[in-house]
Amino acid sequence: MKRLPLIAALTLAGISSATYAADLMNAWQAALTRDPEIAAARALHEQAAFRQDQAKALWAPTVSAGGAVGLGGADSRIKGAEVPGMMSDMTFKTNVNAGALARASIGAQKAWISPEREAQSKQLELSAQVAQAQWQLAQQALIMRTAQRYFDVVGAELTLNVLQRQQKAVQQAAVEINKRQSVGDASVMDVQEANARASEIRAHVLTQENNLAMKKVAYRQLMGQEPTQLLTPANVNLAPSNLADANTWVQRAKQQSPSLQMMSLQQAIQGQEAKRVKAGNAMTVDWVAQAQMDRLSGQGMYGSASNQMAQYMVGLQLNMPLSTGGMVEAREREALKQVEKLRYDQETAELQIEQNVRDAWQSLSTAAARLQALAQSEKASKARLSATRQAHRTGARTTNEWLGAEHDAAQSELAVMQLRIQTTMDQLRLSAASGELGEAQLRQVNALLK
Fold first, then answer.
1. What is the structure's pLDDT at 6?
2. Which of 156, 160, 201, 242 is least buried, going by the fewest C-beta atoms within 10 A?
3. CA proximity to 150, closest of 29, 40, 36
4. What does each C-alpha distance from 279 to 60, 111, 122, 267, 331 come to in angstroms?
5. Which CATH architecture describes the domain 20-70+114-281+326-446?
6. At residue 289, what are phi and psi to the nearest 5 degrees?
7. What is the rounded CA–CA span in Å between residue 20 and residue 27?
8. Longest dimension (CA), the chain
């Protein structure tokens, strides 16, 4: 019994620890279960499986049966009939003005040669491939949205932390200068400058608090969890050490990009549409099997009558359209123009993807040098701040110079943080632009967090 409170506490701790995502992988897994966009993409992807079944069903035999009962009538006359060895030039008449009619039929048909069905089948198969590319694109988009909102919160928290430390330093400076002014060791101008800087940094802190609150709302909407204890980029070289050249990445993008694959498939689908339209003038051949029986009995002009007719056949059915008045040709030319338009759209998309790849690659290739330069700048800014503080106490530096050094040191620290986050995101952007982004790449980036 004494252990129950401890067990309950551990259980609650386990539950509470599961209510937030501490790293990118946890955030992405949470988004997978609740993001409506990925849920809609998943439904479309599952729906595409039925298009494969439809493509196969186009060539499957169709069987139909029918029946009818009601009132009917019939009038038939046969003239010039002959009974071998008996009579010739005979006339047979039957008539039913109103009687009971029963009809039953059954038939089966299977396409053998049908250019239109062939084009439709190919369209359905290509459409299923488009859905696969859309699903891959949706997964990559979710990874990018997750990472963006994750690092938006991380960046906003780090920025707020730096600004709050700067605010504390400026407030302490303002208090110190006010004390020195009261004993005649500082001017009124120094006091005014310190108070102005304190008010300015306070406004920046309030703005950043608002910004952080909105970033957390966006994170919570996507992940369904509070962004608590998020890991941040480690203080290491975040750029890949074996980064291939830009042309290699561009070539990968043109071969693997889901968006380009999807556009290429759409061209193929539209090409099949042109073939399907053209098939409106094509010959079709079907295997057919049919059977029908009609039975009619009732009263007519010649008294009681009963007629029964049965028909059946098994064989081939040919259909050859002779003329459509130019409609098919006009629709075919329209479809071919759409193929041409889609081809130009793909060329435009290739140029944009190449630009995105080169932009992300350029950023990554220079990330190490830029981080080193900014780290040196941060170190120099902190050294300058320390020296300016000492010089201000002796009167060798003005208050404006001191507070300016505080601002520069904070900005240099923020620049290093922002570049680390940007470099981490650039790795994902480069993988996304080249069509390689997936769980493996997300794990690689997640390993860079601490």
1. 39
2. 242
3. 29
4. 19, 14, 14, 18, 11
5. Up-down Bundle (1.20)
6. -145, 125
7. 8
8. 151
Spatial neighbors of 160 by CB under 8 A, at least 6 apart, are 205, 208, 209, 212
Going from N- to C-terminal start, the domains of the chain cover: 20-70+114-281+326-446
Neighbouring C-beta atoms of residue 96, cutoff 10 Å: 23
- Residues 162 and 165: their CA atoms lie apart, in Å, by 5
Quote the DSSP letter at residue 245: P
In whole angstroms, what is the distance from residue 205 CA to residue 169 CA?
A: 13
Tens digits of per-residue pLDDT, 270-323? Answer: 999 888 888 878 888 888 999 999 898 888 777 788 888 899 999 998 888 887
Q: Can you give the pTM of this predicted structure?
A: 0.77
Between CA 405 and CA 401 the distance in angstroms is 6
Do 403 and 170 touch, CB atoms closer than 8 A?
yes
Q: Is 80 left (phi over 0), alpha (psi -120 to 50) or beta?
A: left
Helix ranges (H only) for 91-114 are: none
Q: How far apart are CA 65 and CA 108, in angstroms?
A: 9
